[in-house]
Fold:
Amino acid sequence: MVYVADSIVPARFLTLTGHLTITLLIFWAKDESIKVCLPPDHTPEDYEYKNKELTVGLSIALGLIGFEFLGFLFGITMFMPMVSMISISCHASACVLLAYFIFDKWDCRNYWWVFGTCSAVPALTEATVIFTMLAFRKL
Structure:
């Protein structure tokens, strides 16, 4: 019999790593994404505003992914199937959506939808579980 942890733990690690990798790629090539978001007759102020907006979004996403990695790697939520399934589904969706963000040259406003559903939700779940475990000493 195959245990749930034998398949969920590697899948969670791989989807977290994939989301982290794609987020870093967008961060490093952010100029291209910003140029796609702006009209052809944009001003330097428009560029700076979009640059700050995307930098903040990507930085927060990296922080949330890092926070989730810490909770996962320290073993706090590693063997919780429901938390793992939420994380796997959100991060796998993020990998697909961010790949479309890069290749189809989506508008920068679409990034915030991906961020809200695929980065914030699993991090909030992780934080809730960690808080519950620390506050109530429950597993």
Remarks:
- The chain has a mean pLDDT of 91.
